[in-house]
Records
---
Amino acid sequence: MDKPSSPPKAAAPEDVWLRQDTGRSNKSRVVWIALMKVLSGFVLGVLFYGALRHFNPSFGGKLRYIGSVDGEVAAGDGGNAFKIRKGSKYLLGVGKADITGPVVEINMMGYADTKQVGSGLRQRLFSRAFIIGDHERPDDRFVYLVLDTQSGDTAVRYGILEGLANLGSDYSVYGQHNVAVTGTHSHSGPGAWLNYLLPQITSKGFDKQSYKAIVDGALLSITRAHSNLQPGYLSVGSTKVFGANINRSLYAYLANPEDERAGYNTTNEDDGSVEKTLTLLKFQRALDGKNIGVLTWFPTHGTSMLGNNTLISGDNKGVAADLFEKSLNGDETAAKGFVAGFSQASVGDTSPNVLGAWCEDGTGRQCSFKNSTCSNGKSQNCHARGPYFRRNDNGASSCFEIGKRQFEPAKALYQDMDNLGTPITGSSVKSFHIFHDMSNFSFPLSNGSYVTTCPAALGYSFAAGTSDGPGAFDFTQNDPNTPNASPVWRVVSGFVHEPSKAQRACHYPKPILLDVGEVTSPYLWTPNVVDVQVLRVGQLFVVVSPGEATTMSGRRWKKAVAEEASSLALSDSAAVDPVVVLGGPANSYTHYIATPEEYSVQRYEGASTLYGAYTLNAYIYLTLTNLPYLSPSSNTRPKPGPFPPNNVNNSLSFITGVVFDNPPIFKKFGDVKTDVQHSYRAGATISAVFVGANPRNNLRLEQTYAAIEKLDSSSGRWVIIRDDSDWSLIFKWKRTSEVLGTSEVEIVWESEEGTGNGQYRIHYWGDSKSVGSGAISSFEGLSGTFVLT
Ligand SMILES: [Zn+2]
């Protein structure tokens, strides 16, 4: 075992902490910001419309070009000229909103470990919404959502679509065909919001509060993006990201044909075993040339925070997005409210634990190449290592580092997009979406022979987990007396199905552990109906994948789309090559998508490929069949297909609510139990403990539980310099007595080297639930003042 040589510390660059000081208290600041956001969207819209009318009375047409420089057009509002490389004009909008669900007492989603239950918050979770519309035909548009969640989901998507329908005619333009709900694949968020039974087993069922936080926040991000829709330009570029991913199933990857792999093997550092390319789409508004957002795609698992972490965060993608957005505070190239989406890509066989998988059994050996097992023949001792694995911080330092390794090249590319980017051209903004039942779907391969997919099933290696999270699921320990066994498992274990001969043959060579696709009691365990969706703007095509495509699966899928798009001449100009990206896991969660060759190896990714060896081929077939709907002249949509079940109101739940909160005798909520010291050096870890209450009483969405405040000596006001969105500020909650209802909150600031001198304090906002009436009342706590030198 490796022990930490120094106390855990998040390495933070100084320049990312720039914050606007408003001088207002946090509560009023949040209300003020929310109000301003609503108002400014409206006022800006009116002003902008007026400005356009002023210099071009036929607004709805084009901005006035005032000259052409070197293949670029300089456009302007009559005063401030700015350069834009040639590209088509679109309607663009971005928005961001808080989706942080219950941060305590809820099982976390990703590692499928009943013991991994939230105990606090390291970083708030967000939904980031990107809307792209056709400038001439504004009904042709799509929404791409990036949620800091493990995946997109059927129930969540139903909730978002219902919410949009309830927003009235302004939002009737959004529907099944043009809303993509993707997740960053963070394994550090609260769970209990998924539609199907399997992930609900470890979370003890479904939790409406957890679900609603995601749906409501996603909707709010969409309405924000919608209300700031405005004309603008898109450009796409790519860069290499090194040191942020490796292939965790190289043995399976090597089963793919050698000549195919050789085509992607360019250098030692970029040997093709994972994709090192990050693709960036930049959103620039026409009004003044300022950028309003970026959307990036790069594959690496959201498993930097390890399975023993119990603090909610957006994992490495959450770090990258936060660093990017905060780095542009006050930057002249970026508009206020700039949104950076770090979307997941062909994530299936990638790992952010780039130092590889090692046996923690005293042998000092790497896990076996073939099975990721250790000296005892089992996988439980095999653990993947991030860059700072020696620090005993549940992966936090490695997570920050892997986030930074994505942020830095993305930022460098952003700054040089004028040279490295390609303008998006062509007026077409199109999308399609279908549901398709994958059980027993027969379709032709390119050689003409017919193959069939099967009702979903999981193989034996699924239970073994991966080196990022060994031993997932508790299935073999189905002992009702085991304290950690899920009560859901006790209810449903009797429904486990013995697969038929035909089902076994269909999944061959996968040995079936769980025949999930053929059990409908008490309701479906995993989806049989999948989402197939592609979005398209100009030459950019976004394959929206419901499963975790492996590196080679993603490549085959994207290549097929690029070739078909070229042969159908879908780009408006033959001179422009299609650019294809893959985003997911999205819309539903259909586990993994391995190639047939990887499937034959049956490591975790192959064992978790739900519909048999031809799962990937089926997805590609369905995608290509529907691709003509993206043609510029298309004004029809494919048939929607069979709708999947919505289990929001019929899911099992053994999750209990907050009973009540009480302060200890002679104390009140918010009282300081352990205060700060009088002085610290910048870089020190600073903490205070308060008499607390259960944070599930109020999610404080768009607000904060914790803050670091600094005294502004000129005004005498306390100004918030860190809040729940900051990686370095940690909010921990602990129940101290079930019977008495007492609890405590510890707020920890891992202060950064280079933080300015001055006077600081820690501020806590809580909400308690009263014993009798169950009424919720808010309270505050303040630490003593401390000096940072
Ligand atoms: Zn995964």
---
Amino acid sequence: MKKPNKNYYYLASVTVPTASKSQLLKGLLSDQVCSNSKEGLAACLKSLKLGQLAGGEILPNPNTLASYKICTGEPNDTCVVSSSSDPDDKFEFIFNRGYLNPSDQDMVFTINGELYDGSQINKIVNVGTNQDWKLVNKDTQDHAFHIHQLDFIMTEVTVPNNYLLEDPDGRKFYDNYPVICDDNPATLPDGKDGSHCTLKTYKHGYRDTINLPANSEITVRIPFLNPFITGVFVYHCHILGHEDLGMMQNIKVVNPKSYIPRALRDKWFKEFQDKDNK
Ligand SMILES: [Cu+2]
């Protein structure tokens, strides 16, 4: 995998027509495909189809998972460009607790107001999509988002200020991710002031769990690219007492278009050719 170069930064300004959104995985394109294109980078990116994506890996290097720009005043640092503006690729999950009915005695923990139901599929995803999930914790206590089978990177957070750590050099971190924060305050789910920050570098890689502070919004980007990771599995609060009291949902990943990442397709094709030549 090549190191990121300036071509990644340009991806931030590419506008993709709505009609091609299902074919184009925003943020997964690389200069390997388009840097020398005669028609220009933007036109080349718009013309790409599934299978021509950057590297075509099952689990791509996280630096190709998001679009980066140079952080203001720090020429050697990169920041994630804010998440996709395409609402079809953005989903919101609200974590909370309370009572399902006013007369109930026992507290429950919910995602989008629902208790876990093992017979229900809460989310269906096509392989070959790259999704942003905004995880909103409206509770007065922390939760921890965990997903099975898949990994993600955190791209942006809106959190109470006391959840941000600052090192002696003034660098800020959220949950060990280096971030860069807006100068102006951001509005938290309860209306109070907090901080909005975006991921500063990809170097900390993938995770399958992230803390959701009380009264916060955390956005994670999940690449659904592995054609073998299909079927039904779960995401849930990783505090198991919360999970057991309802804070869990089923996801079903399907591959109706038989999407295969390019690298895998090329590998299989080569093996096929090698066999044929023997
Ligand atoms: Cu929890």
